Amino acid sequence: MNQELIKAEQLCRYYSRGNYTIKALDAVDLTIARGEMVGVVGSSGSGKSTLLNLVAGLDTPSAGEVIVGGAHLSKLSRKELARYRAEQVGMVFQSFNLIRHYSALRNIESALYFTDVPREERLDRARELLDKMGLANRGDHRPADLSGGEQQRVAIARALVKRPTVLLADEPSGNLDQTNAQQIATLLKELNLAGQTIVLVTHDLTLAENLCSRIIRLDYGRVVEVLQ
Ligand code: ADP
Ligand code: MG
User: Fold this and answer.
1) Of ligand 1's atoms, which has the minimum distance to the CA of residue 25?
2) Which of 213, 155, 119, 196 is nearest to 147 (CA)?
3) Is the pTM of this model over 0.85?
4) Using one digit for the tens of pLDDT, what is the confidence trace for 151-207?
5) What residue's CA is closest to ligand 1, atom 15?
6) How far apart are the first and last CA of the chain?
7) How far is it, in rounded angstroms, from Cα 81 to Cα 58?
8) What pLDDT, on the 0 to 100 scale, is given for residue 84?
């Protein structure tokens, strides 16, 4: 259980704005074990999303490394990196980011379009997850016809359908009312108890404390505290 899965070494992401540099992430070191649920907290602008996007392989560091399962992301070819993103990373966002003109089922299935999984299996897996999320009778609905909580459950199903090595959630309950936020929190906890490695970004320290075994606090792009 204590096997190291994700490692960031002196990870930096700088943006230049005019004649000065914003250090969105500044020499961050961290490790995440397989099966762990880690919280990343910090105020707005502290670098949480930047960190998540680098781990997801969606962004490239200015310096330093992300190492996942022993592989240095910076050493992967373009094709290998695309494969990493498509197969190993499940992302969930505050704003759900579902495709508006796709049904719930198709939104979930579409996460497997860029993999080798054949269509029949894609649909089987998508239906199984709809069921698991309590949305079996919502498969034909488009996002606009679903509540916020339902849309976020579809988005989580879309992330999980890949059977990702890690689930990265960026403020997943940030747009939800308290009841739905609690439902999403419970769902994430259950997934973690079933073995899913999760990185949960939130500005809600209490939520992180209730769910996570470890909490990393960022401020101005630096790790300022680790709570166990
Ligand atoms: P958080 O998710 O904790 O709110 P972010 O990681 O989004 O913070 O941003 C960290 C810092 O980097 C902020 O100061 C933000 O303005 C800056 N930043 C993020 N993305 C960009 C970008 N594409 N261009 C310039 N600055 C950015
Ligand atoms: Mg953010």
Assistant:
1) 10
2) 155
3) yes
4) 999 999 999 999 999 999 999 998 888 888 888 999 999 999 999 999 999 988 889
5) 45
6) 16
7) 9
8) 94
